[in-house]
Design brief:
The protein is mainly α. Helix content is about 65%, strand content about 0%. It has two domains: about 1-35; about 35-93, no CATH class. It has helices spanning about 1-30, 50-55, 70-85, 90. The N and C termini lie far apart (about 65 Å).
């Protein structure tokens, strides 16, 4: 009878340990199905593991270099990206 309880507790422990990775997997699936619009990835800009890619994908395009408002917005977005992961040299330039 004791061996049965040990197996049951072991099974519950394994299921309990697997809950967090499955939850993170659902976040990844949601991000993958977000679509091609920059606004669609906004819910994932603060999710660990996805923040860098989501923020990089949602960058404001700069079509006109004389538009100060767009350039300031892009600069602030790049600063947020560098706050998440300061390694990519192309963002430093």
């Amino acid at each position: 009878m004791r061996a049965r309880y040990i197996r049951l507790l072991t099974a519950l422990a394994v299921v309990g340990i697997c809950v967090w990775p499955v939850w993170k997997g659902f976040e990844l699936i949601g991000y993958g199905m977000a679509g091609s619009k920059a606004e669609a990835v906004q819910p994932w800009v603060d999710v660990s593991g996805l923040a860098f890619d989501a923020r990089e994908y949602a960058l404001t395009p700069v079509d006109d270099s004389s538009d100060d408002k767009t350039i300031r917005k892009r600069r602030d977005e790049l600063a947020e990206i560098l706050a998440v992961r300061p390694l990519p040299s192309n963002n430093w330039l």
